[in-house]
Amino acid sequence: MKQTLLVGILALGVATSAVAVIYGKYRSRMLFHQAQTLERQLDRLAVEWEQLLIEEHAWADPARIERLARTRLGMVIPKADEITYLAIR
What we know:
Blueprint: H1 2-59, H2 62-71
C-alpha cells in the first residue's frame, strides 16, 4: 500500500514536472517571438527616424531658407551703407 502510494505521488510529481517544462518552453518561445517582433518594429522606427532627420535637414537647408526669403517674402541682403551697427554697453 505504501509503495503504491509512493509510486502514485512520484508519478504525479513527474507529470507535474513535465507540464511545467512544457509550459516553460512554450513561454520561452512566446517571449522570443515577442522580442523578435519588437526588434523588427525598432528597425522600422529607426529607418523612419533617419528619413525624418534627412527631411528635417532638407527643410532647414540655409540655401532653401534664403531662396524662400527672396522669392516669397521679397527679402534682399542689405548693402553695406544700409547696415546700422548698435553698440550695447
